[in-house]
Amino acid sequence: MSEYLPEGKLISEQENINILHSLKMLEDAKNSEKILEAKACVCDSSHNLIVDLAGIKGIIPREEGAIGIKDGSVRDIAVISRVNRPVCFVVTDITEDENGKPIVMLSREKAQRKCLDAYISRLRCGDIVPARITHLENFGAFADIGCGIVALMPIDTISVSRIEHPAERFTVGMDIKAVIKSVENGRISLSHKELLGTWEENAERFCAGETVSGIIRSVENYGAFVELTPNLAGLAETKEGVRAGQQASVYIKSIIPEKMKIKLIIIDTFDYKYNPKCPEYYCDSDRIDRFVYSPENCRKRVETIFDT
């Protein structure tokens, strides 16, 4: 398994566990600068992280807590917020306290720099990477793409069907896939909708005459847009009392690929509390150069081209 993974992915790996239980293996890991993971249990008054190495005390000094702490470009909250969570690190030294007990000095910053140099700096637009959601804002989702290094996924790139907030799709800690959308001045932007299938791939799951579930996404004077899947929505005839955000039972009148339209009738609606599930992906490769969402026989062409 690659060591350049979102933080928390290595902690349960057997190799990682074995190393944490052996001073000799920790010494070997120090010499090879191998990236390891363990749980941060305390952040002391000086903002040093105390890490549990299977009963051995590990210390990540404050300035080694994350890239940017030393020069002040990153605030200490980046360190404090790691308490009770997995942290990645490399071993920098093994010493003893006044009672002869081992103390292992660690650096998360060095692990992140190693990840940047060997992995993230080599990513190009269109590369598909594993990611883990770290926090959600109105404008998008932030995801760890390796060793706690975070990139933004703007809300309009999460799915074709529009949402009001990323919490409608993701939960913090959810493991997902993401596409590198852009790399500018060292900042990486992510996309997601290109992995959720084309219009035809999603429409193939439905047939005219079926009654299926959906989510009311918007209500206009000419009808209501109903999401059937994250990358597929149809237009329903207006019905009194229908509100955006409701769950709906809808009857499929027709599916028209050449117009990229699905006509629906709302049978019933009820209030709905979002409980996001892990996304269903239609792409199993590690790269995508071009994504054509629209059907081949549709006049309107909807596509994404990833410039390398």
Describe the 3D structure:
The two termini are 26 Å apart. The protein contains five helices and 17 strands. The chain is elongated, with a radius of gyration of 24 Å. With 308 residues, it is mainly beta. It folds into three domains: 14-118, Nucleic acid-binding proteins (OB fold (Dihydrolipoamide Acetyltransferase, E2P)), CATH 2.40.50; 123-195, OB fold (Dihydrolipoamide Acetyltransferase, E2P) (Beta Barrel), CATH 2.40.50.140; 199-270, OB fold (Dihydrolipoamide Acetyltransferase, E2P).
List keywords for this structure.
about 40% strand; elongated; about 300 residues; mainly beta; OB fold (Dihydrolipoamide Acetyltransferase, E2P)
Task: Describe the protein's topology.
Elements: H1 14-20, H2 23-32, E1 36-43, E2 49-53, E3 56-60, H3 77-80, E4 86-96, E5 102-107, H4 108-118, E6 128-137, E7 140-146, E8 149-154, E9 175-184, E10 187-191, H5 199-203, E11 211-220, E12 223-229, E13 232-236, E14 247-256, E15 261-270, E16 290-292, E17 303-305
Short description:
By secondary structure, this protein is mainly β.
- H-E string: HHEEEHEEHEEEEEHEEEEEEE
What proportion of the residues form beta strands (DSSP E)? 35-45%
Helical/strand content category: mainly beta
CATH topology of the largest domain: OB fold (Dihydrolipoamide Acetyltransferase, E2P)
CATH architecture of the largest domain: Beta Barrel
CATH homologous superfamily grouping of the largest domain: Nucleic acid-binding proteins
What would you call the shape?
Answer: elongated
Count of helix runs: 5
Q: Give a short account of the largest sheet.
A: 5 strands, mixed, barrel
The count of DSSP E runs of length 2 or more, i.e. the number of strands, is 17
The whole-number mean of residue pLDDT values reads 95
Report strand order across the widest sheet.
Answer: 1-2-3-5-4
| Highest CATH level, the class of the largest domain | Mainly Beta
Domain tally: 3
Helix content: 10-25%
Low-confidence stretches: none
Radius of gyration, in Å, reads 24 Å
Termini separation comes to 26 Å
